[in-house]
Automatic annotation (TrEMBL):
Function statement: Exhibits palmitoyl protein thioesterase (S-depalmitoylation) activity in vitro and most likely plays a role in protein S-depalmitoylation. Catalyzes the synthesis of bis(monoacylglycero)phosphate (BMP) via transacylation of 2 molecules of lysophosphatidylglycerol (LPG). BMP also known as lysobisphosphatidic acid plays a key role in the formation of intraluminal vesicles and in maintaining intracellular cholesterol homeostasis. Can use only LPG as the exclusive lysophospholipid acyl donor for base exchange and displays BMP synthase activity towards various LPGs (LPG 14:0, LPG 16:0, LPG 18:0, LPG 18:1) with a higher preference for longer chain lengths.
Glycoprotein listed as a keyword: yes
UniProt keyword list: Glycoprotein
Reactions catalysed according to its record: 2 1-(9Z-octadecenoyl)-sn-glycero-3-phospho-(1'-sn-glycerol) = 1-(9Z-octadecenoyl)-sn-glycero-3-phospho-(3'-(9Z-octadecenoyl)-1'-sn-glycerol) + sn-glycero-3-phospho-(1'-sn-glycerol); S-hexadecanoyl-L-cysteinyl-[protein] + H2O = L-cysteinyl-[protein] + hexadecanoate + H(+); 2 1-acyl-sn-glycero-3-phospho-(1'-sn-glycerol) = 1-acyl-sn-glycero-3-phospho-(3'-acyl-sn-1'-glycerol) + sn-glycero-3-phospho-(1'-sn-glycerol); 2 1-tetradecanoyl-sn-glycero-3-phospho-(1'-sn-glycerol) = 1-tetradecanoyl-sn-glycero-3-phospho-(3'-tetradecanoyl-1'-sn-glycerol) + sn-glycero-3-phospho-(1'-sn-glycerol)
Pfam families attached to this UniProt entry: CLN5
Name of the protein in its database record: Bis(monoacylglycero)phosphate synthase CLN5
Organism of provenance: Taeniopygia guttata
Gene of this entry: CLN5
PANTHER family with a match to the protein in the record: CEROID-LIPOFUSCINOSIS NEURONAL PROTEIN 5, CEROID-LIPOFUSCINOSIS, NEURONAL 5
């Protein structure tokens, strides 16, 4: 099973149902029932989705280019002997640690992975899930000349390779034993990883919540490296792994919004019969997030972003191949580093 490149997928999804009503949206994206120029009547008889699983993974477009090659040393997941005893390690380090050291670690912006060590062979391995074309491409689209719709390079995938870079994980992060499993459990986990990798294919940076309160409604959940590690830990627990009682924290980038408003998909908004006013508003919103060529250009666009998100309370989210309007509210955005406990399984424990 080779996870160095994306593979083909199977279906399955979960939905959280919302109520059903109509809502009018003015061309600027603000909400004004008395406006004489209505851009779109949005019928919110929809479901606010959790991250969707897809039937297949589409080929990546040659336009999408990675500055750093995805999974350059990736290899197939080996089949372990049933009697093997395998140590499982929690791995965490600051994002882009290889380039900026602990800079982002001070902001608790962390990347997560999982490590394995075989007692029979002495070999160790690393497994992680991340963007094919870097974080910026997964968070914001390209506005290409001659194309009406924003163009996304937002696939993510699992990467498995031999070796654990101790220096990388230990220097500014974490490398700690969390459980031990059998070779049988490892092989079952590997089959699950193949399914997970083939069906969950789009990276999602943002978590969207109603408020900073811990019991707040989560409108949209992120789908990034830490979520893959949490799913992997849960799968191992379900297979019988018993985790150590240690604190484990993860990074989330949260947007705060009132109830999201469904807008449509690429065809319904940007297609021949689409809404040109709404399409222009979405393109206008994403334009300031483009790569910048000068300091002056950066600050001009930064002001536009502040104007959209904070002053006008607007954010357009692309999630599960659909567009949503987020009526933003204070504190607008927050990076949190919160504890998510290690899981408890549903099967009899495997003793080592």
């Amino acid at each position: 099973m080779n996870l160095s490149t994306p593979t083909v997928a199977v279906s399955g999804s979960q939905n959280l149902s919302l109520g059903c009503w109509t809502h009018e949206l003015s061309p600027s994206g603000s909400h004004d029932s008395n406006s004489s120029c209505k851009a779109v009547l949005v019928i919110l008889c929809v479901s606010l989705s959790q991250h969707r699983r897809f039937d297949y993974r589409p080929k990546t477009d040659p336009y999408c280019q990675a500055r750093y090659t995805f999974c350059p040393t990736g290899s197939a997941i080996p089949v372990m002997r049933e009697e093997d005893v395998i140590e499982v390690y929690r791995l965490q380090a600051p994002v882009w640690e290889f380039k900026y050291g602990d800079l982002l670690g001070h902001l608790k912006i962390m990347h997560d992975a999982v490590g394995f060590k075989s007692s029979l062979t002495g070999k160790n391995y690393t497994m992680e899930w991340y963007e094919l074309f870097q974080l910026g491409n997964c968070t914001f689209p390209h506005l290409r000349p001659g194309m009406d719709a924003p163009f996304w390079c937002n696939q993510g995938a699992a990467c498995f390779y031999e070796g654990i870079d101790d220096a990388h994980w230990k220097a500014n992060g974490t490398l700690v034993l969390v459980t031990t499993i059998s070779g049988t459990m490892f092989n079952e986990m590997a089959q699950w990883v193949k399914y997970d990798n083939e069906t969950g294919i789009y990276y999602e940076t943002w978590t969207v919540q109603a408020s900073p309160d811990k019991k707040s409604t989560v409108w949209f959940d992120s789908y990034e490296c830490s979520k893959f590690i949490l799913r992997t830990y849960q799968k191992l627990a379900d297979l019988g792994a018993v985790f150590k009682k240690i604190q484990t924290n993860y990074t989330s980038v949260i947007l705060f919004s009132g109830e999201p408003i469904y807008l449509g998909n690429e065809t319904s908004i940007f297609g021949p019969q689409g809404n040109k006013t709404l399409a222009a508003a979405i393109r206008d919103f994403y334009n300031p997030f483009k790569p910048h060529q000068s300091v002056r250009e950066f600050f001009v666009d930064l002001f536009k972003i502040i104007d959209h998100v904070i002053l006008k309370h607007q954010f357009y989210l692309f999630y599960n191949l659909e567009y949503w309007f987020l009526p933003m509210k204070s504190p607008y955005l927050k990076i949190v580093y919160e504890e998510v406990p290690l899981p408890v399984g549903s099967k009899a424990s495997f003793g080592v």
